[in-house]
Amino acid sequence: MTFQRKTGLGKGLSALLDDNETVNAVKPAVETASPATPQVGSISHISLADIETNPYQPRTEFDQVALNELADSIKVQGLIQPITVRKNGDKYQLISGERRFRASKLAGLTEIPAYIRTADNQQMLEMALIENIQRENLNAIEVALSFQQMIDECNLKAEQLGERVGKNRTTVANYLRLLKLPPAIQASIRDNKISMGHARALISVDDEEKQLFIHQEIIDKGLSVRKVEELVRGIHQVQVKAPVKVEAVSFEYQKLQNDLASKFATNVKLKVKDNGKGAIEIPFVSNDDLNRILELLDW
Known about the structure:
Among the domains are: 22-117, Conserved hypothetical protein from pyrococcus furiosus pfu- 392566-001, ParB domain (Alpha-Beta Complex), CATH 3.90.1530; 243-296, no CATH class. By secondary structure, it is of the alpha/beta class. The strands form 2 sheets. It has a 5-stranded mixed sheet. It has helices at 12-17, 64-77, 98-106, 121-133, 140-153, 158-165, 169-177, 183-190, 196-203, 208-221, 225-239, 251-264, 287-296, and strands spanning 43-47, 51-52, 83-88, 91-96, 111-117, 269-272, 278-281.
């Protein structure tokens, strides 16, 4: 299934819903229709018992406290924003609005206002993913996973994806790069232990062990994004220096050198002479970086 591209950016879910089979604008009053005669393209009241959840919904967990709060609001104000459904035999299937659907059940409603439209399975998936992405409380990893799912299952390029979700190509790429980080770091992003800014700095570190070390430093010491960026810049500055001719070291010494480099998150050099004497060189790029290394040495 191919999709006709829309002109302009940032239309998101509304752009997908704006076609000849849906209403062109939300009407000030909800149309009242009998359960037997709801029309495609209308806003009708539909029995909650006749609505099935969306099997393509990418989000499987809903915050119970937030659902209860929304249910309390619905009890007082009613449901202001209709859900969107498609006809599925003698039932209706959710396209978007599962959180409102669940909260309406908790509020004790027996029917709910809904847009009725037609959609095939791929459109169902795309619209569910777009609604998921546009949620304000979605964490960066959930956004990245939704982006990747849209690319994989809807056969979209990054530019097409950006048009659908109202984000530029660079932003989409930055989210997708998060999925290349080690699982432990992804979990910290998901659990809001580190920020998107921390993650972007970690992405630029090529070595996974160094990424994990800096990540643990962020957790243990509460490093700011600026401190992490300085630390990463220091690593890069050391790495791009002209190579220095040093004596060859054995495999055991090479492994030790690598272990030290991971521990100190900098390009440690281990120099060993034939007589067994040598030196360990631990470079630093600033006073803050030196203090960080001294703390690791319990100095």
